[in-house]
Amino acid sequence: MQRRTLTELADNPNLISGIYNYCDRWCERCPFTARCLVYATEQEDADDSPESRDISNEAFWRKLGSILQEAQEMIQEWAQEAGLDPNEIDELREARREKRHTDAAAHRLALAGKEYASAVTDWFKEFNETTTSSDTAPQETDIEQAEQLNDASDVIHWYQYQIAVKTMRALSSRSREEDPSEWEPEGPYQKDSDGSAKVALVGIDRSISAWRLIQLCLPEKTDHVVPLILQLERLRHRTEREFPDARDFIRPGFDEILGEAN
């Protein structure tokens, strides 16, 4: 089958515009993959050949090269529509962008997210060491409980680093939004900073639930789980204080249909 262009894929009327901008990139757990342009593009690249899934295989890199060529053609088209010259480098703007990124990474909110990610790594390292020890191994759980533990672990690991990353994007976007030379909103709008902060908050909410599930499944680990839940709760409060409108941000598709994480 001939590969369709991005323009052809984007013409699908069932797609939700911009749904991929404020998602958590967990396609395997997403109920809207059939309405997402990014997912549709990825599926267009997939086939039944195992080689196409292997990043070390030459076939993968050839395919990636063909996608790059198509993307470059599209970039010229998008640039013309936006009245931009891709070859022009605005050194001042680049310096401002770099400063926003540096400032965001050093913000106490971003640092708190990184501290949580590090604490998660330490917790699971210790947990794995104790469970492999014959002297301190916990009692065997039933199948349902084992599945719950696996699900909870998946959720925690998925958002472990993403919380800090989305927080940094929110902080960087807020800095850009506050600079009139960088950004001028036209008409009614939602701030990207609030959207990114909401994704971080969704990750925090789900991580708290996942840690609580681990606590229920492994009551002997309660004393070790509570500090992580409290760490997330503090992070949640800090994020809501920094971005008071984040919870009200309407993410295309997710909040319009599911109304989750309000």
Characterization of this structure:
With 262 residues, the chain is mainly α. 63% of the residues lie in helices and 0% in strands. It has helices at residues 6-10, 37-45, 58-82, 91-106, 108-131, 143-159, 162-177, 192-217, 222-242, 254-258. Helix 5 packs antiparallel against helix 7, helix 6 (143-159) packs antiparallel against helix 8 and helix 7 (162-177) packs antiparallel against helix 8. It starts with 5 loop residues before the first helix and ends with a helix. Mean pLDDT is 79; it is low at 48-56, 134-139 and 258-262.
Describe the structure using short key phrases.
single chain; 262 residues; mainly alpha; 0% strand; globular; disordered C terminus
Q: What does this entry show, briefly?
A:
The protein has 262 residues and is an all-alpha fold. It is 63% helix and 0% strand.
Helical element count?
A: 10
How is the biggest beta sheet arranged?
A: none
**Element pattern in H and E:** HHHHHHHHHH
Helix content: 55-70%
Give the strand tally.
0
